Amino acid sequence: MLSAFLNMIVISLAATATANAQSYTLECNDQVQVPSGCFDYGYCAGGGFIASCSGQASDCQNGHSFCFANCVCVRN
């Protein structure tokens, strides 16, 4: 019973995360040649472009900073 309840919570959270991710578009200026590459360094949410990266710390920080400075998350 507890397992089914936990599965329900996980599915609910996943659905919410998917809905949030689909409600924003990342729009970048001409400095960013491949805007989709910014998703290697973060994602759009209600708070803007949020850092999220699994690579080397300095690469992640530099990539996120560049995208944060040159892109905006626009609510669909």
TrEMBL record:
Organism name: Melampsora larici-populina (strain 98AG31 / pathotype 3-4-7)
Keyword terms, alphabetized: Signal
Protein name: Secreted protein
Signal peptide region: 1-21
